[in-house]
Design a protein that fits this description.
With 70 residues, the chain is mainly alpha-helical. The protein is 36% helix and 0% strand.
Length: 70
């Protein structure tokens, strides 16, 4: 956590550094400390498509009502 704060603090005001430190400490459980600390999920399943070409879908515009939320 300290490393994240140090790397960001050169562009922040002292008040912003304090807020950043507080934010990082509040959510420290979601950050990995090293490569051994990484978790895994069972929420995603990968499908082996073998030799099938990738699926392509056309780009779609975001509806105006949803653009405000983005």
């Amino acid at each position: 956590m300290v490393d994240l704060t140090v790397r960001s603090s050169n562009k922040l005001t002292p008040e912003q550094v304090v807020k950043l430190e507080k934010l990082l400490m509040e959510h420290e459980d979601i950050f990995s400390r090293d490569a051994q600390d990484l978790g895994c999920t069972l929420l995603v399943q990968h499908s082996n498509t073998a030799d099938s070409p990738p699926m392509k879908q056309p780009h779609r515009r975001v509806p105006l009502a949803k653009r405000e939320k983005m």
